[in-house]
């Protein structure tokens, strides 16, 4: 009796042809294949807080915060063509608005956090609107200087607690609100931006990045689209600042720390630029790694730098692009 012949076939062959932006799938197997990475990401983010002790839960909060900032940086740089190095400005503005309203006026945090997110996004966008005529490194330099200007202004005028900061702020209700408020915001930002980039707004925004003069010649107001992109990124950053000040019950000049501008960029490079989900993964790798190396003292900076250098030299595509390529190379046996 002749045995049936079999051959290996890549799972994604027919799916890729029919699903590149269309998602015309034929079976639950194909839908599962495409949805599995997304479901796995959501499941891991939701399950991690349940498996960590209190110390690593705080590290998780820091990682999720950096993930949101990295997401905002990647969105601006790769989809809007705006390399913003002043992410700490959004953190500081959002934190000081929420903390100030809570400390001086006694407003509850369920009002101050959303209000500070929107107001901080508006102020952050307004601060950068006049710089939109600048391109490339010039916009990046101006955005990098703005947080330093705000720090100097607070110190010089001795307002908002000056160098001592503001303490005795209201805390978030409990550890689960701390964790899942941030996880929910991160997932909404991630999938919301990914969805938006497939709509008309995203197509026009990427066209502006590629050739803004051609888009302008078509009668489209490119400045309005850049302002909208800035507002969305600033909204994410301002929410993170408002969240952090109530997570720790304190705010000060450290809200404008350069870590909030530099580490998200490193996470974006490690995770994969232009992928949105890649920077999120990069942040959840870099932040615990940095914390785990804390016992090495100053040597951890050297080890941290070597790891980043290794990724840049040997995996410049980033973690997500590498994992995606391997995932789509899975094969299965089929009858000939």
Would you write up a description of this structure?
The chain has 336 residues and is an all-alpha fold. The chain contains 14 helices and 2 strands; from the N terminus they run βααααααααααααααβ. It has a two-stranded antiparallel sheet with strand order 1-2. Helix 3 packs parallel to helix 7, helix 3 packs across helix 12 and helix 4 packs antiparallel against helix 5. The longest helix is centred in the last third of the chain and has 27 residues.
Short account of what is shown:
With 336 residues, the chain is mainly alpha-helical. It has helices at residues 13-19, 28-51, 54-79, 87-104, 109-129, 137-157, 175-196, 200-210, 212-217, 222-248, 259-271, 277-292, 299-314, 319-327, and strands spanning 6-10, 331-335.
**Bulk shape:** globular
Structural category:
mainly alpha
* Terminal CA distance: 16 Å
Which oligomeric form is depicted? single chain
Elements, N to C (H/E):
EHHHHHHHHHHHHHHE
How much beta, percentage-wise? under 5%
Report the biggest beta sheet as strand number plus sense, adding barrel if it closes: 2 strands, antiparallel
Radius of gyration: 22 Å
Determine the mean pLDDT: 86
Q: How do the strands line up in the largest sheet? A: 1-2
Number of helices: 14
Helix percent band: over 70%
The total beta strand count reads 2
Low-confidence stretches: none
Defining key terms:
336 residues, mainly alpha, two-stranded antiparallel sheet, 2 strands
Write the layout of secondary structure elements.
Blueprint (H helix, E strand, L loop, with lengths): L5 E5 L2 H7 L8 H24 L2 H26 L7 H18 L4 H21 L7 H21 L17 H22 L3 H11 L1 H6 L4 H27 L10 H13 L5 H16 L6 H16 L4 H9 L3 E5 L1
Antiparallel strand pairs: 1-2
Helix pairs in contact: 2-7, 3-7, 3-10, 3-11, 3-12, 4-5, 4-6, 4-10, 5-10, 8-10, 11-12
């Amino acid at each position: 009796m002749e045995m049936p012949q079999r051959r290996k076939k890549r799972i994604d062959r027919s799916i890729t042809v029919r699903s590149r932006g269309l998602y015309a799938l034929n079976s639950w197997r194909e839908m599962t294949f495409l949805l599995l990475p997304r479901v796995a990401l959501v499941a891991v983010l939701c399950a991690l807080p349940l498996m960590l002790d209190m110390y690593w839960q705080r590290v998780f909060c820091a990682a999720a915060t950096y993930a949101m900032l990295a997401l905002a940086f990647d969105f601006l740089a790769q989809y809007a063509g705006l390399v913003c190095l002043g992410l700490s400005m959004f953190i500081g503005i959002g934190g000081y608005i929420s903390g100030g309203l809570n400390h001086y006026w006694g407003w509850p945090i369920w009002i101050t956090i959303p209000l500070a997110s929107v107001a901080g996004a508006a102020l952050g966008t307004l601060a950068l609107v006049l710089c939109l005529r600048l391109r490339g490194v010039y916009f990046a330099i101006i955005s990098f200087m703005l947080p330093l200007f705000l720090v100097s202004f607070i110190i010089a005028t001795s307002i908002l607690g000056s160098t001592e900061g503001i303490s005795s702020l209201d805390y978030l209700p409990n550890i689960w609100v701390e964790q899942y408020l941030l996880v929910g915001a991160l997932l909404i930002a991630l999938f919301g931006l990914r969805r938006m980039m497939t709509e008309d707004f995203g197509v026009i925004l990427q066209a502006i990045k590629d050739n803004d003069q051609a888009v302008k010649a078509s009668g489209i107001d490119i400045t309005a689209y850049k302002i909208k992109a800035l507002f969305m990124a600033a909204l994410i950053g301002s929410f993170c600042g408002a969240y952090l000040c109530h997570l720790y019950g304190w705010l000060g000049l450290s809200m404008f720390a350069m870590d909030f501008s530099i580490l998200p960029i490193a996470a974006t490079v490690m995770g994969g630029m232009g992928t949105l989900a890649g920077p999120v993964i990069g942040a959840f790798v870099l932040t615990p790694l940095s914390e785990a190396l804390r016992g090495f003292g100053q040597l951890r900076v050297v080890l941290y730098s070597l790891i980043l250098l290794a990724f840049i030299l040997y995996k410049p595509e980033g973690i997500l692009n590498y994992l995606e390529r391997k995932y789509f190379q899975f094969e299965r046996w089929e009858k000939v």
